[in-house]
Structures are given as C-alpha cells and as structure tokens.
Amino acid sequence: MKKFLITGFSGFVGRHFVEYLENSKISAQILGIDLAESSTGRSYAYVSQQFKQIDLLCEQEIERVLLEFQPDYVLHLASCSSVAFSWKNPVLSFHNNMNIFLNLVEAIRNSGLKTRMLSVGSSEAYGNINRDHLPLVEESPLDPVSPYAAARVSQEMMSKVYAEAYGVDLVITRSFNHIGPGQKDIFVISSFAKQIMEIKNNGRKEGVLATGDLEIMRDFLDVRDVVKAYYLLLTKGTKGRVYNVCSGTGCTLREVLDEMAAIAGIEIRTRLNPALVRPSDNKVIIGSNKRIYEELGWSPTITRQQSLEDILNYWGGELV
Q1: How many of the other CB atoms lie within 10 Å of CB of 186?
Q2: CATH 3.90.25.10: which residues of the chain?
Q3: Residue 298, Ramachandran bin (φ over 0: left; ψ between -120 and 50: alpha; else beta)
Q4: 2-179+221-249+287-301: which CATH topology?
C-alpha cells in the first residue's frame, strides 16, 4: 500500500484524486494537509484517509509531518490558483505559491526520504502566444503576463533546480484549465453554471449574465482526466521532466456559455462587466498532450459536453 501526501487537500482536485484511486481499486494511504478545515469524507474500500490542518508556510510543521508519515508520493496541489486574485493581491499570491513550494521541497530534500513529488504548474506560464505557434508544446517559450503566472514559472524553475542539482525526485506539470463538478464559483465555468442554474431553479427561461471577455479561448480539461494524469505522472513520469496536462483542443468562453445554456434550456444574454476584465490576459491557450500520451499512454476520456452536464447537475443540486 503506497502512501500519498496531498497538499491543498480541501480543494477541488484533491477530492477527485482520492475518488480516482478508489474507483481504480488502488490501495493507498492518504494524508491530506491544508490550511483550510477539511473532512476525509466517506469511508472507502481501497483508500484510507487522514487529515491534518497545517500551515505550509511553517517549515517545522511540514518537516514533522513528512517524517511522521514518510510518504512515497507528494501531490502538491496547494496554491492561490486564481489569476484574478493575483492581480488584486500580487505579493500575497506570489508568497503563497512560491514559499509553500520551497518549504515543502526543502523538507523533502532534508528528510532523506525516497519521496517522489509532483510539482503542479500552470499553462498560464506560456503567456500571450501567436496563434501560428499553437498548439503549445513543452519546448514553447514561457512569457508570464500575470502575477500568478510569474509565481508558477518561478516554481517550475526551482523544481528543475531541485531535481537536477539536489537530486530531489520531482516531476513537473503545466496544467491547463480544469473544469468539473465541485469546483468553486470563483472560476469562470463554474460561475457560469451556478448563475444558469439559479435562473432555471427560479422557474425562469431566460436571464442576463455579467461577464468578462468571452472571446478568450482556453483548453478545458475535465478534472477526472486531470487526476488520472497526475497519478500516472507520480508513478511513471520522468524525473525533472515537464508535461503538459491538457485536452489538446480549444474553445471560447462564449462557446462554453452557449453550450451550457442549451443543455439547461435557458436563453442567456450577456452584459460586459469591466470589473471582470483582467489588466492583461492570455487570449488563446491550447496545448499539445503528445508527450504525456507517447510516454504514459494518457489521453482525455471525458467530453466537454459530459463535463458541462455534470457541472450543471452539481450546481442544480447545490442550489436546492
């Protein structure tokens, strides 16, 4: 039975990772850690869970937890992952993303444990790309245009230093936009779904949504495909290597909004809210998943249609 330490356990991806292990009948012992309170939830047949509420900015706490639990794998999900938040709080965003990573990887280095870590990064690192240079491959240049993206690039660079210079067993991702049931409504697709279901649950057939720039194009990937990729990267990925985790296809926010409205049977009109337009934003992000497919045999299995239906159903239940 392998041991997995999951940081940011209270968040969106951590819960789905546990579900993936259970549904795949992978025997595992999980220690989830997070600054926010959490619950280990329901009991599982193949996965045992425990949770500790700790601050990853406290080096001593991280070192103590590592030595007590002695994980085989660390899935590092903890971050301030909102680009919008980073524009309003650039110092706090950088501090919380970089410093918690450094504390964690230093604790692994100093512990002497044979622990493998997945350092989760972001496609935001690529910045604004000419459409002629799409899809984005791992060799594409990095050009971050937000405080959050700059923090993620810094984390990736330090990941390579720790892997190559210190010998820490690290695998690195550039993860593209996740979607799926259970995501907080601070993220755009989940926010759209919640507003649409509020309209529908109130018995209305139409409504107005305040939005930002709907012509932004993104590569959306269901979180249930994401966690499968993370498991494969943790267990089989090449040390020190960067992998795109993406669908390989792109669509605009307007297309997604129209698709969700059609699924819900609601007519949506939109109104631009300047407060939702970021100072600088990547206009198009579409990645190539060729590397992870060729090396690990991973490719997406959940369609965007299925993802959007599941997100709408999730919010339909939450808003009752």
Answers
A1: 11
A2: 188-216+250-283+307-318
A3: beta
A4: Rossmann fold (3.40.50)
Residues of the chain with CATH 3.40.50.720: 2-179+221-249+287-301
Q: At residue 212, does pLDDT exceed 90?
A: no
- Give the DSSP per-residue string, 117-161: EEEEEEGGGG-S--GGGPSB-TTSPP---SHHHHHHHHHHHHHHH
Burial class of residue 235 (count of CB atoms within 10 Å of its CB; 0-12, 13-18, 19+): middle
Please provide residue 164's backbone torsions phi and psi, each rounded to the nearest 5 degrees.
-85, -40
Question: What confidence tens digit (pLDDT) does each residue in 29-72 have?
Answer: 999 999 888 766 778 999 999 999 999 999 999 999 999 999 99
Which residue reads 């959490």 in tokens? 38
> Running DSSP on this structure, what letter comes out for residue 98?
I
Whether the model pTM is above 0.85: yes
188-216+250-283+307-318, what's its fold?
UDP-galactose 4-epimerase; domain 1 (3.90.25)
Is residue 33 classed as helix, strand or coil in its secondary structure?
Answer: strand
**Category of 182 on φ-ψ map: left (φ > 0), alpha (ψ -120 to 50) or beta:** left
The Cα 274–Cα 175 span in angstroms is: 27
Per-residue DSSP letters for 56-82?
TT-HHHHHHHHHHH--SEEEE--S---
Residues belonging to the chain: 320
Task: List the structure tokens of 248.
Answer: 């390989």
Burial class (CB in 10 A: 0-12, 13-18, 19+), 44: middle
Q: Where are the beta strands (DSSP E) in the chain?
A: 2-7, 28-34, 47-53, 73-76, 116-122, 169-175, 178-179, 206-211, 217-218, 221-222, 242-245, 251-252, 267-272
